[in-house]
Structure formats: C-alpha cells, structure tokens
Amino acid sequence: MKLRINPMTKTNHIFEFTKSNLEVFSDNKEKRIFLQIESTVLQDDNQWRFYDGANSFLIKINDFNFIQKIKDGNERFKKGDLLVVDLRRTQTIEKKVLKTDYSIVLVHEHRINF
C-alpha cells in the first residue's frame, strides 16, 4: 500500500507498508546543496565520503553521466573541491531500526580547489 501526503507542499513523501515485515519507506524529494569531497572511491559502488558543513558521511553517486566523465578522465579532484548536487535522503525503518541513506541524483557543478 502506498500513500502520498502533503500534496500542497513541494516535498514528495511516499510511505510504503508491507505486511510481511512492516517496513516503512520514506523517500524525500531531492534538495540542491554544496558538498565538500573528503575522499573518492573509484570503484563500482560509487560511494564517496563528503562533508556538508556539519557532518561527514558516505554518499552513493547515482549520476552516471558524472561517473562517466570521471572514467573518461574529464573530471579530476583536489583537496577542498566542492560539488553542487541534488541530494536525496531516504529513510527506512525495519525491525524497529531507523536507517538513513543519501544519494547524489545529479551533479550540477564541480568547484575545483574551493
């Protein structure tokens, strides 16, 4: 069962309940933010460490055009670089444990050596 709430706001919330394990799924609309690159991982999982000005955390990059630019050698990184991205936060509750995952949907800009 899926339920969409707050149709008057610009945020998009979808809650999904499954009868088997009562998992609650919340997918928040993306927001555009700055992220400072702390470490890059050039492997298939594309999870990098970023700093948002308050916290450091792993984020999966799902912008495959950006990943292809890296593979083609068109993007290079230095300490202090920033990305301007659309970031999606996804929260799940399963077996009474809250989990939050982040993913980059789109990289708008790469600011070198901020």
How would you summarize this macromolecular structure in one to three sentences?
With 114 residues, the protein is mostly beta strands. It is built from one helix and eight strands. The protein has a single domain (2-111), classed as OB fold (Dihydrolipoamide Acetyltransferase, E2P), CATH 2.40.50.
Contiguous runs where pLDDT drops below 50 for at least 5 residues? 1-11
Proportion in helices? under 10%
* Overall CATH architecture: Beta Barrel
CA radius of gyration: 16 Å
Q: What is the H/E string?
A: EEEEEEHEE
Question: In the residues, how many domains can be counted?
Answer: 1
Oligomerization state: single chain
3D shape: globular
By secondary-structure content and strand pairing, the structural class works out as mainly beta
Query: What is the CATH level 1 assignment?
Result: Mainly Beta
Count of DSSP-assigned helices: 1
Placed side by side, the strands forming the largest sheet appear as 4-5-6-8-7
Counting DSSP E segments of at least 2 residues, the number of strands comes to 8
The CATH topology label is OB fold (Dihydrolipoamide Acetyltransferase, E2P)
Average pLDDT across residues? Answer: 80
Q: What is the makeup of the main sheet?
A: 5 strands, mixed, barrel
- Strand residue percentage: over 45%
Q: Distance between the terminal alpha carbons, to the nearest Å? A: 46 Å
